[in-house]
Amino acid sequence: MTATSGLAPTPREIAELLLDARARTLLLVGSVPEAELMTQHNKLMSPIVWDLGHIAHFEELWLVRNLSGPVEFGEMPGMFNPFENPRSVRGQLRLPGLGDSLDNMAETRLRVLSHLENGGAPGGDDPLLRAGYVYRMVLQHEYQHNETILQALQLKEDPFYRAPRAIATPPGRPVASDADGMVRFPGGRVEIGTGDRSAAYDNERPRHAVDLRPFRIGAWAVTNGEYQRFIDDGGYDRPELWTEAGWKHRREAGLVAPQFWSRHDGVWMTRSMDREMEVDPARPVCHVCWYEADAYARWAGGRLPTEQEWEAAASWDPAAGRKRDYPWGDEPATAYLANVDQLSFEPGQVGGYPHNLSPIGAYGMIGDVWEWTSSDFAPYPGYETFPYKEYSEVFFGPDYKVLRGGSWATRPGAIRNTFRNWDYPIRRQIFSGFRIVRDD
After folding, report:
1. Most CB contacts within 10 A, which of 214, 240, 244, 257?
2. Which residues contact 354 (CB under 8 A, 6 or more apart)?
3. Which residues pair with 401 in a beta bridge?
4. Is the whole-model pTM more than 0.85?
5. Quick one: pLDDT at residue 4?
6. What is the dihedral of CA 223, 227, 232, 236, to 10 degrees?
């Protein structure tokens, strides 16, 4: 069983997935001294010990308390409630030490495994247990906090985080496209979202039909080399390319290049964790905010895709008239198929994963970098909150823009064509890039 399979998992399969998730969490933080795990390295991110405590508390809520009887809250009250204690104040909390945090994680996990060994298998009519949904939800929660932890570690300086690299991304290959680097979607009636209730979050449902006009979309995410041309052409100094809010933010934040880029003797350098390197023109640009992506798209004579256009380009097979779960088909993501699962610790060159191709020929729509869309985060028609409003419902509105596709830092069990991420348009610490569209 995978973390996104629609089949009902066995207790042993659940236990193996839970153990795998925890092993990865511990691998990511294992080399970091306790003092650095306790430190808030940036107001945008939590002290990493807070994330560890939140992982344990979320698991206790859903796999211990909720399976013993319904509870009346969606986030456990107290120190590790993200709404009671937003990120900006978490560095001021009297957090437990690393040893106590790890002990709490282990004790909670032992209770969960004991429950599984004593007949706690999913099943029946309870929508939380049906097809193992609540277990997959807890797994995805830990996967997502892995990526959040990596964002904090990327921001950490003095010293930089020594990443436990275990995978080298393959060299790039040519990607077929039109002369301007685009591929065409013919338009028409397509299906967006999913009816899956084994793994998908409530904001991905329900599956519904939309009508799209023909468009062309980038055959790959905008690369560093392409983005450098925007910089060299004065893109950061031309207010006509930016929205009013974007231009205001560019000036106030002093944006001149993607985050973690620096210029030395006329050469652009970038940093991924502890590795500083010359900017590779063949890799997708990373760590740009929505405003930067939007300005580039306007400079390039295009626009950002709507999330419906993005999903159609990633999933819809016009010839077969059907939707795929992933760009390459219905086989779940792996580090062989796409640059996911964290251990490369950087985006790869365009074309390095030749199977990562959508039905219309769009490359790399899963992995490498999250891709900004033009869409606000909003409910789909017929949306129903499940199982708690604090995951999706409280974030709906114009303040957040949707990102799609996952990044190198995303675990395979937390990404699919229908997965919706969201963040403020000023955010750059996320592993974010974009591709553009042009009307056909």
Report:
1. 257
2. 173
3. 376, 423
4. yes
5. 52
6. -170
